[in-house]
What does this fold into?
Amino acid sequence: MPRNLSAVRSQVEAALAGRVPAPFTFRERKIAETVSAGIREIDSLTGGLPRGGLTEICGPSCSGRTSLLISALAARTADAEACAFIDGRDAFDPHSAEAAGVKLSRVLWVRCRNIDQALRSADLLLQSGGFGLVALDLGDIPADTVRYVPLNVWFRFRRAVEDTPTIFLVLEQEPHAKTCASLVLRMGAEAALWSETVEADRIIPFQQPHARLFRGSLLRAEVVRSRKQA
It folds into this structure.
């Protein structure tokens, strides 16, 4: 038996010669570099966004996934990195993004009408390289539609960013990249925050809920999958 195994091993090494050096030799996995997502609590939870990997940010509408994306874009453009934003349903608001600190002059905005255009755009941009962050927003596309994206597409995306400094973010309602994702973050809204109205420098409490001012909402973030110990 050992002699047969040795022969098989020799055949495999000969077949992979020139493509995979020393296929039976253990190679230590590289430590992924991470950068800030622009939100201290998210960095503490995840350890940062991994370069050279695919990160999924999933959750329903109003879960904070877009806010996290805008924070990441603001952080990367502040460091003078070129970024690309692939808008799956042409829903991006550049004025709000600029007000949040995103330097639009360093962002390539690709406006798409359907998921096919969005996936093709992502493929081209990831293969071209040169971007510090590439974001693919599929959050407004029904989860049933995204679910039918072939798994080999996610593998191709992962391979395209492997061993590169690019951060690939995908926004969805549900995670779909499976083992291709280096980090999966699920977002959710907890509770709305309200305040009393202010009039003539006086705080006037109102009994009616519709008379209160909306200050924001508490958000929840949960790490579903991570290849980095955080």
